[in-house]
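chain below, 430 aa
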Amino acid sequence: MSFEKLGLDPTLLRAVASQGYEQPTPIQAEAIPAILAGQDLLAAAQTGTGKTAAFTLPLLQQLLTDPQPPANRHGRRIPRVLVLVPTRELAAQVADSIRDYGRNVPIRTTTIFGGAGMQPQINALRRGVDVVVATPGRLMDHIERRNIDLSAINRLVLDEADRMLDMGFINDIRKIIGLLPERRRQNLLFSATFSAGIRTLANSLLQSPQTIDIAPRNSAAEQVTQNVYSVDKNSKRALLEHLLRSQSWGQTLVFTRTKHGADRLTEQLLRSGLRAAAIHGNKSQGARTRALTDFRNNRVQLLIATDIAARGLDIDALPHVVNYELPQVAEDYVHRIGRTGRAQYSGAAVSLVSADENTQLKAIEKVIGRKLERQVEAGFEPSARPPADKPAGKKPGKPRQQRQRQDKAHAGNAKPRSNNSRRGQRQQRA
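prediction:
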């Protein structure tokens, strides 16, 4: 199948061709005709399957064929399409996609998210826009200050809805939906999984939706090679540097578990002469944008990220993802490695696993439905662990009768504790 057969406008087809795409991905082949037909949509698609274009292209076409765009009393356009996303990075990615595919059409798009100044966003809204891509929290700020007019919204997209639910945005989402016009509206819900929470949200929002399920729940991308290196915790950084240099890795996205860990690893890699930058929630929006831009433009080889970036980054042909530390939630592993092996490209995911992470590794294997083979790099062999039935540092227990006699003796010699002692102990625990 070709994009031409999907019924897209020639202006959009030229933009698609300029991006180097010749055939639609499965999610695009199914979603584009459904959206053009005006249907509500419930779609589950793995990251890297082209789902952003799957709703961006038909929405642009619908905007082109709409009658006269609605305007406020000042004659400025008011938005007709609202796209809600969980993170700033994803908001920027979706807006860039709309601008890329809509380069030949007179459609205005703006982004609204936290970590950036309010005034530039207010100015963009006042100039008039057709499409607003927003994170729920910052959009609520604008709504409460009456900076945005939602009275003409006739198409709503919830992108990565499962992630928004995980991040606690459900109340804001419900408030926003309640403020939209009650007349018929096309609603599109995209999610990596069809969890119980997503099903509940879909039932309250969608009307007779077409359901599309491109990838099985929590499946890892087929074109991603997954490797696990067993290594001591304190040898991870040395092993990472060794692999980077010995295997001539190019751009590499490295995931840590904490913000502090991301900053510390970045500083260590910089001292080793590697080009690295960190991206996480404590960074300002300007710093995050610079780090991502430098990484995309290959001015930075290593982007060290927390899970906030797991679903919000879209980097073409990213060759490597490294789990420097395994995620606490097994499903996040799928989203992490989904940053590579996107669309028609292949990729490699490497996990550096220490002995204390074996429980997380087993949980990941259960989620993806396969066992990941462990390997050891010469010179970085993990130290031998004590047998499971004899934990290190634990002395053999005393016979039960002896323990009971000692307990009684101690009880007889014990002095009653004052209330002050108990209060002090409670304070120490607190």
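The chain has two domains: 3-213, 224-375. Confidence is low (pLDDT under 50) at residues 386-430.
thats it, cya
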